[in-house]
Amino acid sequence: MLDEFRIETTSVGQYIDKVEKKKIKADQDVQREFCWSNEMINNLIFSTISKKRIYIPNIILAEQNKEDGTKVTYIVDGGQRTEALRRFIKDGHKITKSIRNRYVEYQGVKLDEDGNVMLDEYNDPIYEMKEYDLVGKKFVDFPEELKDRLNSCVLSTAIYQDCTQEETSELVMLYNSTIAMNVSQKSLTYIGKYANKLKFIKENNRFLIDGTMLNENDKKKGNWQRVIAECAMAMFHFDNWKKNPRDICSYLNENATEEEFDSLNDYFNRLIPYSDKANNIEVAELFVSKDMPVWMMTFKRAEEYCSDYDFGKFLIAFNDMKEIEKNDTTWIELDQDKHTKDKKVMLKKVNYIESLLKDFLHIKEDDSVENNEVESKVNEIQTEEFEKKVEETIDDTEMETLDFVRKYVDPEITEEDIDCCWDYINSCVSKTKIIKATSEMLAPENENSMMAMIAWADKENKNIATWVQRFSITHKTMSEMSQRERFEYMKKNFLKFETMQMRMKSA
């Protein structure tokens, strides 16, 4: 029965008139109370009068039969939209500053200095484009042109027919069982200009995937993109730092550049050799959601006097330095401050880390007693065992290809096997053309990792042709990785790709 519905097109003005006259009722038994914020009301009003009309989703209605043979129509889905429109048109809701777009353009008659309509030589009104500031305005304040535009805004309704009371309640529950956007998800709607950049970094950057404590649940909630946006704000626009994710996204939408997001992605990539949840969890645990902007801001600052390698060494050592006192505080004390997104707190953390980093690098800003004591503690941490741990994170890229492949794939690999690997590469470039000759995969400095990957695939009897083509396109920046790390990453990436392909085939 519930598939028996009809579609009717009406206008906002006609629809709200029916609601006011109780021909359409919003008080079905299981409907929730009105809970929209002023911002949500404001943005809906803008949608109805924008020069480029924004589609308002269908209102779902249910016609319920009464015992006397008459019918009553209830709102199933769209009660919040309905009440928002009604409050603005009928109850005098005033548009507040919490509106996404406060100005709207419309065509209106041109007036002279006395407020009279100006006419052309044919005695017809002269029209011009006008801009109207919505903030502080009620419906009665609108110029007639905007009133007409709102009232005539097309609204579609889907009407279920011949419903019982129980069926109407069931429909209400079915249509209102979705999960609303959280703060992070909603804030991302304010950065539409760079949404594709955030999505690309989220989906492709290995550091975020393997080198931070961000998890899949965070990804579903939109927290990955929020963190990326916060990092961009901290690194490139900290003077204008905003605590609210929506304000950050709104600011970046207006002031950021594509180059900044590309640069941020590169900064993430440069940290890949030093942070890995599987092999270097202590470093990965530094990159939690609340501190990611702090660490990335520090990393950018530090590149003026510190190499990526030395910064990586510092990251590995940092866990043993958290109790070192600098500027009358320790990292442990700073990390307990609940105001994690407060500008002053973030700056204290950055200054603490940077001061400790300079001591770690023996960069002396003064010869104070405190500085000497800290340096002594840092030196204690830089033990032979620590240096060995650091070296293990950086691979031997100068090895002969045969030695490299033997070490990381199979000790029985021969020169002839390596020649076969080269034959495969040449075939991919010149015959099948699945790899462009200009691909970074073919760069001389990546020879060891590429040969190892092909040799491994041959040993494991894996068909990597489709993956090679995809990988060569999507992974253009991996220059900061050692060859061992690059090889391990390619292997891991292929296995994920293989699993995805198998799932698609079985679906």
Describe the protein.
The protein has 507 residues and is of the alpha/beta class. The chain folds into 3 domains: 5-98 and 139-178, Conserved hypothetical protein from pyrococcus furiosus pfu- 392566-001, ParB domain (Alpha-Beta Complex); 184-393, no CATH class; 401-506, no CATH class. The protein contains 24 helices and 7 strands. The chain has helices at residues 12-20, 38-49, 79-90, 144-151, 165-175, 183-187, 195-204, 206-210, 216-220, 223-236, 245-255, 258-270, 281-284, 292-302, 308-318, 331-335, 343-360, 369-381, 384-393, 401-408, 415-430, 447-459, 465-474, 483-506, and strands at residues 5-11, 24-25, 59-65, 71-77, 103-109, 127-133, 154-163. Strands 1-7-3-4-2 form a 5-stranded mixed β-sheet. Strands 5-6 form a two-stranded antiparallel sheet. β3 and β4 form a beta hairpin. α10 packs parallel to α14 (292-302) and α22 packs across α24. The longest helix is centred in the last third of the chain and has 24 residues, at 483-506. The protein is globular, with a radius of gyration of 31 Å.
Major sheet description: 5 strands, mixed
Provide the number of structural domains. 3
- Our Rg estimate from Cα atoms comes to 31 Å
Described by the principal axes of the CA atoms, the overall outline is: globular
Mean model confidence by pLDDT: 85
Low-confidence stretches: 392-396
Total helix count?
A: 24
Helix % is 40-55%
Strand content: 5-15%
Quaternary state of this entry equals: single chain
Q: Span between N and C termini?
A: 31 Å
DSSP, total strands: 7
Instruction: Give the class from helix and strand content and strand pairing.
Output: alpha/beta
